[in-house]
Specification:
Layout (H helix, E strand, L loop, with lengths): L1 E7 L2 E8 L3 E8 L4 E5 L5 H10 L2 E6 L5 H4 L11 E5 L9 E3 L4 E4 L4 E7 L8 E5 L2 E5 L2 E2 L2 E2 L7 H12 L6 E4 L4 H11 L4 H10 L8 E2 H7 L8 H10 L7 H14 L7
Parallel strand pairs: 4-5, 5-6, 6-7, 11-14
Antiparallel strand pairs: 1-2, 2-3, 3-4, 8-9, 9-10, 10-11, 12-13, 14-15
Helix pairs in contact: 4-5, 7-8
Length: 266
């Protein structure tokens, strides 16, 4: 199902819903009918979109190897796409590997992408910047971050710090629609934060809350605010052994979020 179109310069970015709550982001150049698919966790929505709009899939971006971000790729190989992912990735479909700080020009789309290695959720996670659009997979969500499956809290902290150095107007395109439940948790961490409160009220009226922006995330995302006094205090209340070190605070927040039951507050 197509649920949103964002227009940027000469391209359009379209959100396709897949599986339970995944997004597949389609970056379309309408002038030459080519497009990019970001994290195709299912093939059917992509194939339907390509056929409906008579597009050719030139490129696939893979942020990490988890099946809900890659299992649609085999059915898309007949398009002969360039498949870009981390140089360290275990995903077998990647045919163009990219590393931290590399820029890669995509002549068929007339676009340049920049890579950021963002381990934490997985060891080989990578995020992609195209113009001011940041595709963060399962590293950075609106008002949240991914579970730490393979990495460490330190890795996740430094990955998030890397991304937060980008300009305020950077748009965040993440891999799942988790915003409402993340904001419920954020409002529990910072109950007096009116920006979080207002954003949660807005999110409850939306089917699709993305893209967000880094400007918003600086105010509403507790995992980007692990050095903020209110967030530190909340983490220490949850776990009194938490120090003021932002990595330790993030670690406590992630444990807390893993155990959090959002339905209790919705």
């Amino acid at each position: 199902m197509i649920i949103q179109i964002e227009v940027l310069m000469m391209i359009q970015t379209v959100a396709l819903k897949a599986l339970r709550d995944n997004y597949i982001w389609m970056v379309v150049n309408p002038h030459d009918s080519t497009c990019i698919a970001v994290d195709p966790g299912a093939s059917a929505p992509v194939i339907t979109f390509l056929q409906r709009h008579q597009l050719r899939l030139s490129t696939i971006l893979v942020t990490h190897h988890h099946p809900d971000h890659t299992q649609g790729i085999p059915d898309l190989l007949d398009q002969d796409p360039l498949i870009i992912g981390s140089a360290h990735s275990t995903c077998p479909y990647i045919n163009r590997k990219i590393q931290e700080g590399q820029q890669l020009h995509l002549p068929q789309m007339n676009l340049t992408l920049r890579a950021f290695e963002t381990p934490g959720h997985t060891l080989c996670h990578i995020s992609f910047l195209i113009e001011n659009q940041l595709f963060t997979g399962d590293t950075l969500f609106s008002a949240g971050c991914g579970r730490i499956f393979e990495g460490t809290p330190s890795m996740m902290y430094h990955s998030l710090q890397k991304l937060i150095q980008l300009p305020d107007d950077t748009k965040i395109y993440c891999g799942h629609e988790y915003t409402q439940q993340n904001l419920v948790f954020a409002s529990h961490v910072e109950p007096h934060n009116l920006i979080i409160k207002n954003r949660l009220a807005w999110a409850k009226t939306q089917q699709n809350t993305l893209p967000s922006t880094l400007a918003y995330e600086r105010h509403i995302n507790p995992f980007l605010r692990s050095d903020h006094p209110d967030v530190i205090q909340a983490a220490q209340t949850y776990n009194p052994e938490t120090t003021r070190d932002p990595i330790d605070v993030l670690s406590t927040l992630r444990t807390w979020k893993n155990e959090f039951k959002p339905d209790l507050l919705l």
